[in-house]
Amino acid sequence: MSGRRDFLSMPAPENYVAGLGRGATGFTTRSDLGPAREGPSEEQMKEMLAKRAAQLGQAAPSAYGAVERKEEDEEEDRFQDPDNEVGLFSSGMNYDKDDDEADRVYQDIDERMDKRRRARREAREQKEREEYERNNPKIQLQFADLKRSLSSLSEEEWAALPEVGDMTGKAKRAREARMANNRHYAVPDSVLSAASQQGQLETSISSESGDGTMTNFASIGAAQQSALQVRLDSAAQGNAGTQTSVSGTATSVDVKGYMTALDKTQAMGAEAPVEDIKRARVLLESAVKTNVHNGPGYVALCRLEELAGKLHTAKKVIQQGCEMCPRSIVVWEEAIRINRDILHNAKVIAANGIKQNPKAIKLWIAAIDLEQTVAARKKVTRQALDHNPQSVELWKILINDTEDIKDVTMLFAKATETVKLSEELWVSYARVCDPEHAQQILNAARKAIPTSWAIWVQACRLQEQLGRSDLCDKVMERAVKALIKENAMLKREEWITQAEICDEEGAIATAGSIIKATIGWGLDEDDERRDTWLQDAKDSIARGRFETARAVLGHAISIFPLSTTVWHAAAELEKRHGTVDLLLNMLERAVNACPKSESLWLSYAREMWQAGKPAEARQVIARSFQQLPGNENLYTRAVDFEVDANEFDQARTFLKIARESAATDRIFIKSAALERQLGDMDAALDLVNRGLQTWPGSWKLHSMKGQIYESMSKLKEAQEAYSVGTRANSKAPTLFILLSRIQEKTGAVVKARSTLDRGRAQNPKNPELLCEAVRLERRAGNLPAANKLMAGALQECPHSGLLWAEKIMNLESRTQRKPRALEAIKKVENDPQLFVVVARIFWAERRLDKASTWFTKAVVLDSDYGDGWVYFMKFLEQHGTEEKKAEVLSKAAMAEPKHGEIWQSVIKDPKNFRKSTEELMKIAISKTE
Questions:
Q1: Which of 411, 419, 433, 780 is most exposed by smallest CB count within 10 Å?
Q2: Residue 645: partners with Cβ closer than 8 Å, 6 or more residues away
Q3: Mind spelling out the 3-state secondary structure of 179-232?
Q4: Is the separation of the CB atoms in 159 and 296 below 8 Å?
Q5: What pLDDT is stored for residue 60 in this prediction?
Q6: Helix 817-827 / helix 832-844 crossing angle, nearest 10 deg
Q7: Where is the composition biased (Acidic residues) (predicted)?
């Protein structure tokens, strides 16, 4: 064993610091929070390092190997006081005048730069603030306008405001009460069994009793008492008063409570429950006692007592209010009103109120109403005017009570002299005077009130009354200039309103002058003035002010004399709300102003013909030929006139001239159609062939040729004509449909299907061809193929009303029609065919009102859709009145529909030539399903 001591028991070297080599000078143990011991001081560290350096023969370093700092560099820059500037910026306390001048210059520059950008910055901030407040409004801002409007409420309106009831927990209390009333408990079976056996005799012998002759009357009585208690509990579940509770088959009514409630209702006038009156009385009495000078409080309490039937108490309350609030006008008014049953008392109260408030116009008017004779009324009115000479209402009352016209004139003169700023008095004064004097009065009124437009309007009406309508325009021109000078010009819409008022009162010339002078006010020449004026005329027509609309359109014509739109609007106004002479005169002016307008010439000729003037209509057509030579529409209209007059030779002559001067395919179609209607098929076929030589691509000529052959029973030639047409014009779906139908008629269904496929290839996404393909399969009895084709068709044309109508009415079961119709309407918003389908569905369900509504929607949406009128008339034939049928038939004749599968097949059939609308409608109805 060595004599060397154990390492752990050896003493530590001198200046040894545990953990110093690892950079630790102390550590924390579990039992000791904080450093285990205080580390060596700086002096000890320096001494240790110097001793070790001496042993190694090196220079003594600083404590941690760094060069020692000088004392003046001990403080680091980060601990420098920012207010204590040193070095370059150190100036000490040497602050001179130059520094002050520099600071002032810099400050001025900063302020100027801030001022330059301040306006834009404040505008931007204001805009951002307004945007934020608009997007995030506060509650107080949302109700700001309502708060401001409270200032205009009168004391009576304040008094009439209802008191706020106790709404706290109201819903919860009502729910709890309802649940308590509906609470039920299950009745034990023993009680039910005992109740069912009530009154029965026990015939069996109990095994427990000795001899079988004993009866348990106690149990029977208990059962009876239990059953009775159940009935009573059930009856008690109903509320007291007028409510009724039903238990089984018996009904219990609280007769006494019902009569009591009935008496209360009669006493209150069935306006409010007694509990509400009591609560309101307590609140109002508290309000009056709290503020004894609150006039509206006394008024409210008085009315409450009057409502409760306590008239004497109400009078006492309002009397107390008069004593406590002598300056409150509403209190005196209420006192006068409630005491009108005793006229003398009411007059005394009115006199006392007027003494307290001599300037109260309402009290004077109430006192005037209490008088029974005209003389007494006038006496009180004059006393009122002595105290209130500026009251217009009092002057009006006095004038209305005066019958002598001379006295009325004198009173008006005095009134206008006293109240010079009342337009109403000046205008009324002018109306009661003779015209010459009235003109002087209006001149004086105009000087007294230069900003009044009503005086100028009255002056214009005065000129019209004198028969000087030509001066009305000059008066209104002066009025506009004067009002503009005084900055009192009304808005354009307000002037239109004044013109409509004059129109309503019969001052037509004044209304026209107002429109001429003011209709362009506020509109620039660059604006769309024409459209604006057309809309103004439309609005006036909607309000029934036709003279105003006529004046607006007349002014628009004077500004836009070459606008056919304005002329048509004016002609439509005369047609609907004018006379025939005015209409023809308007159209004459229109064609003279726009001689190159085809639509105006056609309208003029049609209206002349409908007016029963065929000779003049022919003259109009002749004049139109001079202005528009070679116009096919004019020739066709001339032909229609001659056909209507049974002048077929003249119609043929017109068509011949048209074929020579305005040769178009339409002229040849018209010529062939006329010959076809007259029964000359050979001539019609010849005209068609001549037309096809010039226009081989006209699908209408090809279709007419095939139809002529069909009518001649030449199906092979008709099929050839349609086939040639499909090759000449492959973009005409009608030719493919006609060809497929004639092939189907001859039994070649496969060829018909192939024809439709070829047409669909040439005309993709065409609803007519797709629908015809579906119908072909349906007629052939192949419903699965029809449904498959319909599914593909709706994918290609999902917004086709024709396809949806075919699917709903022919491919869906009756129970599925309504859901499919709803789906179709969602995809196709406005389609008359769908509307008719919906109407037919409601018709089948016997919901006649809804069916009529949807039929009306269909014909209003598209009056040119003839099938809508046909189904509507068929519906009315079964469920309509004679008046309704006549109305719908007249509207259909006026609309002159041209489209619709059933309707077109009827009106284009030569057999129906020259038949009336009623006859055509009957034929079309017979063809419907």
A1: 780
A2: 614
A3: HHHCCCCCCCHHHHHHHHCCCCCCCCCCCCCCCCCCCCHHHHHHHHHHHHHHHH
A4: yes
A5: 62
A6: 160
A7: 71-84
Kindly state the helix (H) or strand (E) to which residue 253 belongs, with its residue range.
Answer: strand 250-253
Which position has the token pair 């189907």?
A: 744
CATH class of the structural domain 831-929? mainly alpha
SS3 of 747, please?
coil
The alpha carbons of the chain give a radius of gyration, in whole angstroms, of 52
Contacts of residue 828, defined as CB under 8 A and 6 or more positions apart, other chains included, come to 799, 800, 801, 804, 834
Between CA 201 and CA 918 the distance in angstroms is 85
Which helix (H) or strand (E) covers residue 244, if one does?
Answer: strand 244-247
Contacts 24+ apart (CB under 8 A), 899-904: 899/864, 899/865, 899/866, 900/865, 900/866, 900/867, 900/868, 900/870, 901/867, 902/866, 902/867, 902/870, 902/927, 902/928, 903/865, 903/866, 903/867, 903/869, 903/870, 904/866
pLDDT score of 262 = 33
Which residues, listed in sequence order, are joined to residue 252 by a DSSP beta bridge? Answer: 245
Question: CA–CA separation, 513 vs 496, rounded Å?
Answer: 11
Q: How far apart are CA 808 and CA 555, in angstroms?
A: 53
Domain boundaries, the chain: 264-370, 831-929
β-bridge partners, 29: 32
pLDDT at 806: 92
Residue 357 C-beta-side C-alpha neighbours within 13 Å: 21
Task: Indicate the residue type of 629.
Answer: P
Q: String of b and e for 714-742 (b: at least 16 CB within 10 Å)? A: eeebbbebbbbbbebbbebbbbbbbbbbb
665 bridge partner residues: none
d(CA 125, CA 512): 50
pLDDT at 723: 92
**Which CA distances in Å does 909 have to 98, 681, 737, 921?**
111, 13, 18, 13
Task: Give, to the nearest 10 degrees, the angle between helix 374-387 and helix 392-400.
Answer: 160
249: its two tokens: 């088959």
Distance CA 337, CA 340 (A): 5
Give 306-326 pLDDT, tens digit per residue. 888 888 888 888 888 898 888
Cα→Cα distances 173→272, 274, 826, Å: 21, 20, 46
CB within 8 A of 830, min separation 6: which ones? 861
Catalogue the long-range contacts made by 591-597 (C-beta closer than 8 Å, 24 or more residues apart): 591/620, 591/623, 591/624, 593/557, 593/561, 593/562, 593/567, 594/562, 594/564, 594/567, 595/627, 596/627, 596/628, 597/564, 597/567
Q: Which residues of the chain have pLDDT under 50?
A: 1-2, 28, 31-34, 36, 63-76, 78-79, 85, 87-92, 201-215, 228, 231-271
Q: What is the Cα–Cα distance from 55 to 50, expressed in whole angstroms?
A: 9
* Residue 509 CB neighbours (<10 A): 22
Percent over 70 (pLDDT), the chain:
80
CATH topology of domain 264-370: 1.25.40
Instruction: Spell 220-242 as b/e; 16+ CB within 10 A means b.
Output: beebeebbeebeeebbebbeeeb
Encoded tokens for 920? 């055509």
Same fold: 264-370 with 831-929: yes
CB-neighbour burial class of residue 917 (10 A; exposed 0-12, middle 13-18, buried 19+): middle
Angle, CA 634 vertex, CA 628 and CA 640 arms, to 5°: 165
- Give the C-alpha separation, 607 to 585, whole Å: 11
Confidence at residue 742, expressed as pLDDT on a 0 to 100 scale: 92
Check: CB of residue 827 under 8 Å from CB of residue 798: yes
Longest dimension (CA), the chain: 160
> Are 744 and 724 within 8 A, CB to CB?
no
Q: What is the phi/psi pair of residue 905, to 5°?
A: -65, -25
